[in-house]
Amino acid sequence: MTELEQTIKLIRPVDQHKAQQAQKRLNSLTKPRGSLGRLEELAKRVVAITGKVRPKITSKAIVVMAADHGVADEGVSAYPKAVTAQMVYNFLRGGAGISVLSNHVGARVVIVDMGVAEELEVHPGLLVRKVAGGTANMAHGAAMSREEAIKAVETGIQIAQAQADKGLDVLGTGDMGIANTTSSSAIAAVLTGTCVETVTGRGTGIDKERLQHKLSVIEKAIQTNSPDPSDAIDVLAKVGGFEIGGLAGVMLAGASMRIPVVIDGFISGAAALIAAALSPQVKDYMIAAHCSAEPGHRIVLEHLGLEPLLNLGLRLGEGTGAALAISLVEAAAKILNEMATFEEAGVSEKED
Amino acid sequence: MTELEQTIKLIRPVDQHKAQQAQKRLNSLTKPRGSLGRLEELAKRVVAITGKVRPKITSKAIVVMAADHGVADEGVSAYPKAVTAQMVYNFLRGGAGISVLSNHVGARVVIVDMGVAEELEVHPGLLVRKVAGGTANMAHGAAMSREEAIKAVETGIQIAQAQADKGLDVLGTGDMGIANTTSSSAIAAVLTGTCVETVTGRGTGIDKERLQHKLSVIEKAIQTNSPDPSDAIDVLAKVGGFEIGGLAGVMLAGASMRIPVVIDGFISGAAALIAAALSPQVKDYMIAAHCSAEPGHRIVLEHLGLEPLLNLGLRLGEGTGAALAISLVEAAAKILNEMATFEEAGVSEKED
What we know:
Chain A is an alpha/beta fold.
């Protein structure tokens, strides 16, 4: 059995019985029943996922995976390809959006080179796990081989497992890769069965003309490669990216270890589609951080059956939405752990 | 000039010029323009409010005001009146929702007895500023005198000013008072000119029958008292509450000191209506934390022209929504302060 198969086999249904116990406790806490709304739902989900009735969210990590995309050569992005590597350096120096927001919520950032074109300088904060120096241009053929696709997913699994060894109560996902909304739109179109136009947006902010071009490049990539919607690894190989495969692996490993996985935006959503196609149960371990301004994201979330926590018009990626949502997951667990019950506090209960 | 008039006179327009400078900086940071969505808007608002181009949100306080309502005698709530005092003790012991969430976001909680019926035990964490031991029953006459209404607002002003002396970068509002959704619905109906049914909900969770009763009590209170919609103090006196008046004062004082005020849910919203009626400019200093599950809240926010940050189905009050939103305000300020610019990070800018 391969590492991927083994991980999938370890993913069990979440613990609904424990979730019921959590509901009972939530009802006993000094507040009108259900009055903390989605925080209460979230607390129950964390209990169901972890199987712990009083889960503590202390050790938090956001895995940010970076890789380059051959399709960037088609001119689908507003930024030059070199920005992928430049932004990895920015992550390492703490100057990026994710650096600031992960600090704010007390989460460590795990930066992974899954396939940046450039050879990056050695840095203690950087995990170099290049599958290759960027994908091939999917407009002309498969982005990667089937073997590379599996390797990307298994690399993600290994990285999540190594993080768990350091202590891990919640896992966030994040991405960096110029042109990766192009790849993600292709994945979303194929795996949700939606037309390309509906799941494609302006990414980092391209104009109308370039958006038309991006649409035709995605159409061409799908036509050229005919990815098989019933085979997620095939879809990843034909139109995916190394960071996307890696993030799918992170999600599968998180679920196999019963760790809640907070899914960031559209690119993480594409990875979630791949993970869910490989193992539908993984969806129960996912928490959707937010709904991105990128139009395809809403469709991806609906397909996954996930309701986003935040709606702040974010479209940066990097795990920035996941960081903010991780703080809500932590808050939800604290409600369960730290609030007094009616009995403990000597507060009268509801009369009717 | 009274203290209230003096405070209102100090409220100046927010600094749009500084907000433009903030926009320039946001555009120079290593992210696609506008890609942090509402966090960027929020950063700009904090700059406009404070007049500081690099505002730091370090010292955070949530003022939670408690008071009893005579109208509770009409049986409009699912909980007995004694719960107001019991919950104040729960706040003081750290067992309530606001205790947990304010801790989570690193905000201090300032608990104020604005008019709890019971004489509360002395506690170092409790400010006793009773205007009276609860309002009169508004179903039969004015909830308080005009003098008491002004005193409630001025007490709120003094409390916010005393907090500012301790250092204060952001202020949140919160409430506790059995039957205070009844009072808030009456205020909302009168000040927004909406029918009572539209702005009245189930509060702590009453059944359909009791909701009908609550509606008729509110209608009766408005008919009996004929509050003057053009005179906010009259509305507060006739159908308001001491905690609601106090919170309106907190908002006015916050604005007068150029401190962002994060408005919690429906009861804080009713207080915001009073504050905005006294000084329309105060709205520019308000940040709406969330949209409550209580149906009148959406109407209040629309009337104030505020777009809520969170939509988590909260309906607890106490400042719980404000606590979560304060964390976003802090995050927004950190984006402005801590992210690297394209130039600093050596990242290439957009091509088109």
